[in-house]
Structures are given as C-alpha cells and as structure tokens.
Amino acid sequence: MHAKKLALAASVAALAVSGLTLPLAGPAAAASTLSDDFNGDGYRDLAVGTPRANAVTVAFGSASGVSPSRSVTVTQNTAGVPGVTEPEDEFGENVTSGDVNGDGFADLLVGSPGEKVTDRADGSVSIVWGGPGGFTTGAMVLNAPSAQDVRFGEGASFRDLDGDGTGNLVVVSANRFWWYADGVPSGTAFAPEVDFLPAGVTLDGVRGGHFSGTSGSDYVVFGKGATGKGYAGYVKGGPGDIGRSYQHLLQSSVAGSVDEAAVAVADINKNGYEDLVVGAPDSINAGEVYLWPGSVRGPDVDDYPRRTYDQGSAGVPGTPEEGDRFGASVAVGDVTGDGYLEVAVGVPGETVGTVAGTGNVVVLKGASGELDDGGASWHQATAGVPGAAETSDRFGSSVSLKDFNRDGRADLGVGASGEDIGSSADAGAVWVLRGASGGLTTSSVTSFNGADFGLGGAGLRFGDVLR
C-alpha cells in the first residue's frame, strides 16, 4: 500500500494524553437522556476504540460536530482508571455506554478481554464515570466471575434487563453470559437460569434491545459458531428464568469461511419494537445484511419476516465480488431527518475502480415500513472525501450513525483500519460525514487519525471500534 497523508485537524496530543479533563464550550447540563452524552451538554459523543493502543478516544459532540480539539483519550494509565496498561490487555476491544450510576451523565464502558488478572480468568470491564467536565471522577473495574470464563469483557450492554425501570449491566466473555443487579454493579454477577449458548460458540459481543413484548430488554449475542462461521442468537430478558427463551438466528453457511457477525439495533419500521440488523460479511453473495423486525412475539415471526440485502439486491450500489465483505460493520440512524432510519453497511474489501480492498460504505435508505432497497455508496474516491483510494485501506471496517451536532440528522462515522499515515502502515483513520436532508454530504467533512491524539504508529488500526 502506498503511504499518504490525509487532510487532518490540528493535533491535540498533549491534551489527549495528559488526563481526563478538558475545557468544554458552554455550561454542562444537569442531566441528559442520551446514553452516549458523557459530559451532559446535550450532544452525542463519538467513542473510538483502539485496542492495539489500549486506548479509547472520545470526541465530544457540539454544534460544529466532532473534532480532535474537543476530545479525551482514556487508558489504564489515566489517573483514576484502575489497572496498568500492558500490551496484551486489548483495552477498547469493545466500547459501549449508559448512565450506570444514575447521575444524568453517560458512563464509558470499556472491555479489556486480554487483561491478565492474578488468580482470575482473563479479561475485565472498566466503567469510567462521565461528568460535566467529561471524565473527572475516576472509574471502577469488574473481573471475570468464574475461572471458566475466557476473555471476559468481549461485549457489554447497559439496558433494563428485568423490566423494573433501572438498567442492568450485561457482560459476555467468549463463552458465557453474565448480568449484574440494578445500577452500579456490586461485584456479584449472575448467570442464566438456563445455559442457552450452543456448544462451541465463541462470543464477540452482545446488544440489548426491546425486540419483543417482554417487560425487560432482550439480547442478541453474536460471534462465531463451533465451525468458525458467523453466529447470532437471541435471548429474552424479563424478571426471571433468563435463558429459558432462546432462539438461534444466524449461522453462516459458506464452507471455509471464518467470520464474525456485526450487529446494530433500532426501530426501523416504527412499530414500537426495536429491529435487529445483522451483517454476515463472509456469507454468500460476498456478504449479506439481514433485517429482523421486532414484534410483540420477538424477531423472525411470520408477520414480520426477515429481509436480506446484498450488493445484488435491487437498488443496492455495487456488485457482489469475492472478498467484498459486505456487512463487516453496520449502524442505524436517520441521516436525512425525515423520521425514517437508514442503515450504513461497511464493505471494507470493496474494489473501487481498479484499487483492490480500498473499501466502501453503502447507506441503505429508510422508508415507510422498512428499507426501500435503494442507497448510495461512499469511499475515498468520492469527491470531497479526504484522502485517496488505495489498496487495502479497508474503508468501512467500522461505521457509526449518530447526530453529533444536534441538527436532527445522523452523521456517518467511518473507520479505515488499513489506512497508511505517512510512513506508518495500517495506522488507521476515521472520517465523519454530515447528514443532510438529501442524504450524506461532504460539506464540513472531518477526518483524523491516532497521531492527532498522541497514538501514532504502524499497525495501530485507529478506529477499529466506533460507538
């Protein structure tokens, strides 16, 4: 791959590595209803996980969007965060958020599945407390509840599991599902009453959502099945008997494929139940995306059947080609502000022109009902997108859709894990394209990489995780 330089925002490395506090424009609100507003100012924030650097960078939203000049980088060497950064920790391998302590500020939940803990199984989850200055009041850490856990902290979710109106932390290891009592975890974790995970499944994540008429949140667990192919399963929450109601959703069927499912959650069809979007990048047709609408009885029932999208579907840009990996990442949000939700699909193996593996993002347009089978594509050869299409950039290896500037339209965050920065191969970079009434626009597009936060280096893969 040829080295190049992006058009980058000004570096704030000194701020990023010095601590958890930064000055923010305007007064912080007393409380926020947003699950990803860490400083309480009413804007959604972007969390960028870089597990190879053992770091999570939070770019705070504002009226002008996100920028390195309004950001903080959190590591286990940051004051108030338990632990010490070690090469194998993978701090930031997964990132999520929620107001765990109920103070009106979202808290940052960071998985470190490679963490070595004395007399414990590997893995931990750190909860970094949000507040009016961003992150100023420290953190707590949870370790694996049992010796049988493998890579505790592969995924986490903070939703109301039992329907009592208070959130519960759910954490998965590679082979187990755990949850904690309401609010701030006491340290005691609970296992399902029924061991629902199929034999040989290796979990990579969990998402909570109101997929059915149960009083609590339901959960989708995903990763790889016993044969190494993409897997996703659905388990209902509620006040008891967790694990009793389990449904197998996906097992990729392509011989020889080794992949992991990607998952996003939102109410796309406006029936009051959240819908499940699952990407299977190594499935047939060079990758597929499945939409399971939620309903009172849950996903994948006769009244709301599963829909499938690939680059051979009517109106979807592109053509299925070996190695495209359509569905390697997925996200849901209202890009146009018309009340209908779009689905962003990462295609990091896409060939653009004659450039192999440069990558692409397809945005499927929302419409009344579900999706309208149409869409547009975005990549580094698109006019106005900083950079240039180069071999193995993997643009679209991660995606997010969030309204960072509070204009009522979701902005697209895109990671390219193979992007070269100067002479640093595979350093990685992130772009943010703004939503607009006509769809995404390259007006005021932002791009940045790890060097803007003091995290430069070859093989860093900055932007591996976007939340």
Structural topology:
Elements: H1 13-18, E1 46-50, E2 55-59, E3 71-74, E4 94-98, E5 107-112, E6 124-128, E7 139-143, E8 155-159, E9 168-172, E10 177-180, E11 189-190, E12 202-209, E13 218-224, E14 230-235, E15 246-251, E16 262-266, E17 275-280, E18 288-292, E19 307-309, E20 329-333, E21 342-347, E22 360-366, E23 371-378, E24 395-402, E25 411-416, E26 429-434, E27 441-449, E28 465-466
Protein architecture, described:
- This protein is mostly beta strands and 467 residues long.
- It is 1% helix and 33% strand.
- It is built from 1 helix and 28 strands.
- A 4-stranded antiparallel sheet has the order 3-2-1-28. It has a 4-stranded antiparallel sheet with strand order 4-5-6-7, with no helix packed on it.
- Strand 4 and strand 5 form a beta hairpin.
- The longest helix is centred in the N-terminal third of the chain and has 6 residues, at 13-18.
What gap, in angstroms, lies between the N and C termini? Answer: 28 Å
Order of helices and strands: HEEEEEEEEEEEEEEEEEEEEEEEEEEEE
Which percent range describes the beta-strand content?
25-35%
Main sheet properties: 4 strands, antiparallel
Residue stretches low in confidence (pLDDT < 50, at least 5 long) are: 1-30
Fraction of residues in H or I helices: under 10%
How many helices does DSSP assign?
1
Report the average pLDDT across residues: 89
Kindly provide the radius of gyration, computed on alpha-carbon positions and rounded to a whole number of angstroms.
Answer: 20 Å
The number of strands is 28
Shape: globular
